[in-house]
UniProtKB/TrEMBL annotation:
Name of the protein this chain belongs to: Noggin-like protein 4
Any one Gene Ontology cellular component term annotated for this protein: extracellular space
UniProt keyword terms in alphabetical order: Developmental protein, Secreted, Signal
Major subcellular site: secreted
Cell compartments where the protein resides: Secreted
Any one Gene Ontology BP term: negative regulation of cell differentiation
Record carries keyword Electron transport: no
InterPro entries referenced in this protein's UniProt entry, alphabetically: Cystine-knot_cytokine, Noggin
Signal sequence bounds: 1-22
Keyword set includes Signal: yes
Gene from which this protein is expressed: nlg4
Amino acid sequence: MIPILAVISSYLVLSFSAPCLSQYIAAFSESEIDSRIQDINTKGLKVKVLSEKIDPILFNDLMPESHSLHEGRLMKILGDRFDSFWTSVNTPHNLGYETEVSYDPKLEIFLDSLNITEIRGQPISFEMKRLIQNWLVNKATCKISYYWEDLGNLFWPRFIKKTICVNTNSESCSWPPGMKCGLSGPMKIHHLRWTCFESEEPLYHQRRKRANNLHKANNKKQKKRQVLSFWSPDKRKKQLKRLIRQTSLWKKGFQCEWRISDLSVSSTCECACRQF
């Protein structure tokens, strides 16, 4: 059996921010603590443990190393939680804004149910009815813009897709005027967060070092095991722990590992009554 850390004595919070990019590292107990701070590639780096400054050199030792960024293992940790639409492992081809119409088909169904046949007591043609319906649909349709945010190498996948309502404040989306376009359709997307905490060297690291020395040649020949959808929850849990250990890092009294987290994003823009 591989022992599990019994006590987490304190938590390490490393945080930073860069122009146009945001990076942050979270420390976990039962709940997660978010922290956005300053730049990974600039001077003036702030590194704190429980609000006390420590040697910035330690920061470089705790960043994910090559074995911690093994794409195959990280993909297996996320499993079916990985969402290729909202996240990207590699740099997206288009980092700018992509705008499209957030069309709601229920609008046309609603307008058809109104059965518009006359205006001010005067009958209208079918063509005029369609013209009015199309105008109302276009008026009430909001535009949504997508852009990619780079969260840095403390997250995996590091690129997250965000949304913006294009015509939020420019004009009303209703007739009579009064309603505005706004973000809606909140959803959770999952990713991995690099988490560090103070700890003595775990026993499984010592055992792994001895095993690597004794069986290095044999380990290279072993085939990689795949995540099978029909695996039992217990087997999946054991494999998840093993993958997290394989990608973890221990240096200078700190243990770092990937942990599954979620991020809330808005998937659509809709016309509704809002207060600005």
